[in-house]
Every structure is written in structure tokens, then in C-alpha cells.
């Protein structure tokens, strides 16, 4: 159902169909996942059970400006591989969040262990009224808590935003209404 947001579609899929694979990878309509990345990440995760994920770069082709096509693109990812391999989950979380100023790739859209991903969608969090991209924030907290993280320099996704149309929000919402207090409490408890 295209009228539902991505979080609700994920929840519906999990409730109705479940996820029966050891690993999963989310993707947007405009994403192309690179097969070499899939193969490498699966090999890496099979050999390294203490890692929550193997992440690559995202190359995004941008929308033209003033109807002038842009052939430039940007690569989201580290200039060299980064291994967040502390045994302490809080150190991993702090390291990851301190590096995550759009230097690291979009971890939400990468290969990860299904069991780690489903931690966010158990009954306790199913009731949350999350807005927009809040699930990505929760996921970014969950990833380093679930295990070590390896960020390679390989391209994992090519994203085409050249024809993407963004609608202006007509009814702006006060920030306190975006995430209700009960959900903030749930996130902090998580």
C-alpha cells in the first residue's frame, strides 16, 4: 500500500509474512544494490558472528538544478575502511554516533542480521507512533548495540534521485508533536 510510510509497511510485512532468512537488506524504489557488495558482506558476516553488519558506500545521482542535468554524484562513506570493533557496546555506540555526520553510509539500507533488525519490531516497539525517519534513528542506535561494525569502501547501493519529486509539507508540525513523549520514553528506555 503506497499510502503507508516505510515503517508501517515493514511492520505489516513482518506481521503477515515474517522474515525467514538469516540476513536482510532493505532498499528504496530508486536503489540498485550491487551484487559484489552482497556477496562480500554475506561472506564477512558468516565469518564474523560478533559483527552486526558490513556496510559500504552509497552513490547518489542528484536531481538536476534549474533543469540543468548534473552528471556529478556524491559518495557517502569513509575514505578508508573503518572497523568499530570494541567489545563494549557503549563504546561502539559512541564511536559510531560521533562518526555519523553523513560521513558513514546509510546503515538502515544495508545488509544486516535479521535477528538484530527484528529487535526493533518486537511487540514493545510495534505500538510506537514514529514519524518519518525516526525508525532510522532507532536503527542506528540498535546496530552498534547489536554487534561490531565494519565500514568498507566498496559501493553497496547506487541511488537515483534525478527524477524524485519532493512535496512541500503544507501542515507543519511542532517538533514535540513529531515524536510523542511516550515514544521518547520508550526510546530512552531502549
Structure description:
The chain is of the alpha+beta class. 37% of the residues lie in helices and 21% in strands. It is built from eight helices and seven strands, in the order αββαβββαβαααβαα. The strands form two sheets. Strands 2, 3, 4, 5 and 7 form a five-stranded mixed β-sheet that branches. A two-stranded antiparallel ribbon has the order 1-6. α3 crosses α6. The chain is globular, with a radius of gyration of 17 Å. About 3% of the residues have low confidence.
H/E topology pattern? HEEHEEEHEHHHEHH
Number of strands: 7
Question: Would you tell me the structural class of the helices and strands?
Answer: alpha+beta
Low-confidence stretches: 166-171
Largest sheet: 5 strands, mixed
Shape: globular
Query: In angstroms, what separates the terminal alpha carbons?
Result: 29 Å
* Percentage of residues in strands: 15-25%
Radius of gyration: 17 Å
What is the average of the pLDDT values?
78
Number of helices: 8
Amino acid at each position: 500500500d503506497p499510502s503507508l510510510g516505510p515503517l508501517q509497511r515493514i511492520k505489516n510485512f513482518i506481521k503477515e509474512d515474517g522474515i525467514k532468512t538469516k540476513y536482510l537488506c532493505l532498499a528504496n524504489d530508486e536503489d540498485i544494490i550491487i551484487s559484489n557488495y552482497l556477496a562480500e558482506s554475506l561472506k564477512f558476516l558468516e565469518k564474523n558472528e560478533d559483527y552486526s553488519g558490513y556496510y559500504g558506500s552509497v552513490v547518489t545521482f542528484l536531481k538536476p538544478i534549474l533543469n540543468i542535468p548534473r552528471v556529478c554524484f556524491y559518495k557517502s562513506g569513509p575514505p578508508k575502511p573503518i572497523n568499530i570493533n570494541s567489545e563494549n557496546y557503549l563504546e561502539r555506540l559512541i564511536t559510531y554516533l560521533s562518526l555519523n555526520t553523513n560521513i558513514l553510509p546509510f546503515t538502515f539500507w544495508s545488509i544486516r542480521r535479521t535477528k538484530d533488525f527484528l529487535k526493533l519490531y518486537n511487540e514493545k516497539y510495534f505500538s510506537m507512533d514514529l514519524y518519518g525517519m525516526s525508525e532510522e534513528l532507532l536503527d542506528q542506535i540498535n546496530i552498534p548495540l547489536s554487534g561490531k561494525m565494519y565500514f568498507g569502501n566498496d559501493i553497496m547501493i547506487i541511488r537515483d534521485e534525478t527524477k524524485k519529486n519532493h512535496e512541500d509539507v503544507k501542515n507543519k508540525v511542532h517538533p514535540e508533536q513529531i515524536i510523542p513523549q511516550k515514544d521518547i520514553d520508550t526510546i530512552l528506555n531502549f
